[in-house]
């Protein structure tokens, strides 16, 4: 089954919707604050961070933000692998 485009979080509205779906509306501001710590944010990188996070595991965001600040291509590659594996 193909993924909904919104799951990739490639724009702000899709990221917000996906964050609310994965973590609940109450965690939105916390997750957005964590995303604001990305050194060189791009739509694709921010989307990859949200896409990689497991439902209910907000700590995944902080860990992936840290990884993205060290090696953004590694995070993008991980998102590609996850997408390809379904």
Summarize the structure.
The chain is an all-alpha fold and 86 residues long.
Structure report:
By secondary structure, the protein is mostly helical. It is globular, with a radius of gyration of 12 Å. It has helices at residues 12-23, 28-35, 43-52, 59-70, 72-85. It is 65% helix and 0% strand. The mean pLDDT is 93.
Secondary structure blueprint with pairings:
Layout: H1 12-23, H2 28-35, H3 43-52, H4 59-70, H5 72-85
Helical percent range?
55-70%
Structural class assignment: mainly alpha
- Overall morphology: globular
Distance between the termini: 8 Å
| Count of individual helical segments | 5
* Strand residue content: under 5%
Overall pLDDT metric: 93
Give the ordered list of helices and strands. Answer: HHHHH
How large, in whole angstroms, is the Cα Rg? 12 Å
Summary keywords:
single chain, 86 residues, mainly alpha, globular
């Amino acid at each position: 089954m193909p993924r909904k485009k919104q799951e990739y979080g490639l724009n702000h509205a899709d990221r917000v919707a996906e964050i609310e779906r994965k973590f609940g509306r109450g965690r939105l501001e916390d997750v957005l604050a964590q995303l604001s710590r990305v050194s060189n944010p791009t739509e694709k990188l921010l989307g990859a961070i949200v896409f990689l996070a497991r439902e209910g595991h907000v700590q995944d965001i902080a860990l992936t933000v840290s990884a993205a600040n060290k090696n953004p291509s590694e995070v993008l590659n991980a998102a590609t692998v996850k997408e390809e594996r379904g």
